[in-house]
Amino acid sequence: MSPTSPENRKSSALSSWLGLGIFVGICAAACAISSARPVTDAPWYSIVPPLLAVTAALMTNRMLTSLLSGVLVGGWLAAWHVSESVLTTAGGGFTRAGGFFIRAVASPSSQLILLYVVLIMMAIAVVLVGGGLKGMAGWLMRFVRGYRSAQFVTFVAGLLVFIDDYANTMIVGSMMRPVTDAQRVSREKLAFLVDATAAPIAGIALISTWIGYEVGLLGEIAQTLSIDKAGYAMLIDALGFRFYCLMMILFVAVNTLSGADFGSMAIAERRAREEGKLLAEGGELAVALEMGRAEPHRDARIHASTAVIPMVTMVSVFLVSLWYSGGGSGLLANDHAALFRVSVWRDVFGRANSIPLLAWASGIGLATAWLCSWQIARTPWSAMGRAIWIGFKASLMPVAVLVLAWSLKGACEQLRTGEFLAAQLQGAIAPTIFPALVFVVAGATAFATGTSYGTMAILIPTAVPVAFSLDGGMYGTVTILTIAAILDGAIFGDHCSPISDTTIMSSAASACHHVDHVRTQMPYSLAVAAMALFLGYLPAGLGVANWVSLASCLGLCLALFAWLAVRMRRTGADESRLTDDSRPNQPAARGIVNEE
């Protein structure tokens, strides 16, 4: 259906009116509640800037414009709150909004975070041009023995390319496609494996392109709430409660090892294995985005070390610097086994200032990537120069979103949005269900907008203060669970969204029809989200240990796919049917298809 068709125009108009109605309704309710329950002098319209950003994003699918509108309206409302004069507000609003932008980038920590994002994107582009990640994928290809192992190796490759979701999708998809094609794995399944090991991995890795962004947002809210924790330490605290990301990893592992599928994915897999049709008929292939231009240079000597050395160097530099910055050397002097204690590393993470260390490590990683691409891959300097430029351009979107997010936070801070919400919701929402509710809201927002970054930017400054209040003004379980729910919900919604960069790039790198990728991936993402909600966030809010939730997820996945595998064999979809070389429409495959 054409985007300009009458049906789509009607649907778009209906969505816009619905979004406008929700916006006006929530504002009216906030005004009424504030009048009936005046527990704080923070104005009710303090919710307008973040609410406007959310509803505008839902209505337009344009995150930058939506965030910008929230900042501008925040400036005008801040000016109105001081003077309540139309003339003063008109001019003062722009001045205050400009002040939010200036303060967002004025602090050294903010500048270092932006530098980190730019440098690491450049490093990834250089490694791509040098063929390093292609070499890593090529090395993994040697471990493929059949249908299931082809999927499992793709899953492992996705785990190893943890440094960035864009690099993950483009490299793993394009490099593993010949292997999965040879074993008659459908393109829809390949695109799912690529997508499921992109953002969920980059979002929980200790060092990745996501870390600087998440640490920046968490560090800002920690200062606002006077939480004596570094942003990186808060990220580590929430790691064990990242139920969607962790459960997606468990789900994909069991799925690939079982060789069984359900829903529309099972139909696609049956078509590929029995008919040899890797793609459904009809549809349009997705197109690669900016990072896809950084392909291996035609003269590059492909070798895995071109990627392994920069990645290991970057992680090592970061960890060693973090250890010394957090006082690890002193702890090691008193306790020679301190290096192997998780509690010690947690304390080190809490004391260290990780932001300059991330920038330092990414700079070393870029320099190492350049040297390896030059000396090992023999990549021309001109090609690496173009890669630097591509990496810089690819970093502009997260940089812009981050600056706008900080600016919106400044507006909310001046209008005391968090104070108003915390005061009104104190006692009105049960702390046990608040993280689960936040997970659903974050997922819906990210799905509609196609960006996890923007969702985090909107919800962290608004939902975390409420959780902090529900914790009794302390950094407790509800606050940690809410942080995890925001980060996880943003990734879940982004994972499902048809307008998400990583979803589109997964389709492009896997040479899959984009609509088919979204259609087949959706049931799997929703299934994992349901497990994260009902086995993760709701029980955790009641005090159930996170390991119980993860063990329950693993048990459910094992039972589900074991049942599906038995059912598949009983219906005759056995591997013995796939070894007949005389089957029509069989693709040119190297090797014999088997189950392993």
Characterize the structure shown.
The chain has about 600 residues and is mainly alpha-helical. It has helices spanning about 5-35, 50-60, 65-85, 85-105, 110-130, 130-140, 145-160, 165-180, 185-195, 200, 210-225, 230-240, 245-260, 265-275, 305-325, 330-335, 340-350, 355-375, 380-415, 415-425, 435-450, 450-470, 475-495, 500-510, 515-540, 545-570. α21 packs antiparallel against α25. The longest helix has about 35 residues, at about 380-415. The protein is globular, with a radius of gyration of 25 Å. It starts with 5 loop residues before the first helix and ends in a 26-residue tail after the last helix.
How many helices?
26
Class computed from helices, strands and strand pairing = mainly alpha
Q: What's the β-strand tally? A: 0
Q: Sheet with the most strands? A: none
Distance between the termini: 41 Å
Beta-strand proportion: under 5%
Helix content: over 70%
Low-confidence sequence ranges = 1-5, 573-593
